[in-house]
């Protein structure tokens, strides 16, 4: 069956870096969009970043304004994996981070959790001194 497994979370000081990874199995996601969402305690799940498939070999990277310039999303299509490099981390980045796969058809849809069919279990990121 389809499975998404996140790894790489942990405790980091403000200003530090972490790299999250998502390993997909059960099918090939080369024609799927894949993204990262996060949910902080007491808050709703929010979009972080995504790579959206736009047909053929065209992909678009999308970022939430709050992480633009600090986070970088990437995919390895041969290995069916996705990564999120997080730099200049802030305490407000503290959350559980979830990997997701789906078929968002636009930039707007890529930021909606409802556009994603498959989800990982999450990995915890804590930014604190």
Kindly list the characteristics that best describe this protein.
mainly beta; seven-stranded mixed β-sheet; 1 helix; 11 strands; 3% helix
Q: What layout of secondary structure does this protein have?
A:
Elements: E1 3-7, E2 10-12, E3 18-25, E4 33-39, E5 46-53, E6 59-63, E7 71-76, E8 81-86, E9 95-102, H1 107-110, E10 116-119, E11 123-127
Parallel strand pairs: 2-11
Antiparallel strand pairs: 1-3, 3-8, 4-5, 4-9, 5-6, 7-8, 9-10, 9-11
Describe the overall structure.
This protein has 129 residues and is mostly beta strands. The chain contains 1 helix and 11 strands. The chain has one helix at 107-110, and strands at 3-7, 10-12, 18-25, 33-39, 46-53, 59-63, 71-76, 81-86, 95-102, 116-119, 123-127. Strands 2, 4, 5, 6, 9, 10 and 11 form a 7-stranded mixed β-sheet that branches. A hairpin with a 5-residue loop joins strand 5 (46-53) and strand 6 (59-63). The longest helix is centred in the C-terminal third of the chain and has 4 residues, at 107-110. The mean pLDDT is 94.
Please bin the fraction of helical residues: under 10%
What percent of residues are in strands? over 45%
Rg over CA atoms: 14 Å
Q: Care to count the β-strands?
A: 11
The rounded distance between the terminal residues' Cα atoms is: 40 Å
What summary fits the major beta sheet?
A: 7 strands, mixed
How many H/I helices?
1
- Based on secondary structure, the structural category is mainly beta
Average pLDDT reading: 94
The general outline is globular
| Assembly classification | single chain
Low-confidence stretches: none
Order of helices and strands: EEEEEEEEEHEE
